[in-house]
Amino acid sequence: MKAVNNYIVVDKIKTTGKQVSGLLITEDTDVDNRYDKGKVLSVGNLTEGVNEGDIVFFDKHAGHGIRYEDNMHIIIRSSDIVLIEWN
Is this prediction's pTM over 0.90? Predict the structure, then answer.
């Protein structure tokens, strides 16, 4: 599978629950967070500044899901990415 134009294929990274004062905060509880985290699988030929393997944060309401080889991936535009995590 290869992204084209300014599209990017991302695998969403599930955040694990964390304990805060004895309460378990899950991904569903974090409604204040506007962004999801994901790993870039494929980058379209018109996309600049994003590479395969990058960890990115993108608007959680952006893009759409696609099932490919029994895995669910998210297809977003490069403009939906708000930051790239540095290693």
Answer: no
1: in domain: no
Q: By the 8 A CB rule, do 81 and 74 touch?
A: no
| DSSP string for residues in the chain | ----TTEEEEEEPPPPPEEETTEEE-TTT-TT--EEEEEEEEE-TT--S--TT-EEEEETTSSEEEEETTEEEEEEEGGGEEEEE--
Please tell me the total count of domains within the chain: 1
Domain span holding position 34: 7-85
Whether residue 12 is contained in a domain is answered as yes
The β-bridge partners of 37 are: 57
**Phi, psi values for residue 54, rounded to 5°:** -65, 150
pLDDT at 39: 96
- In the block, tokens 């939906």 appear at 80
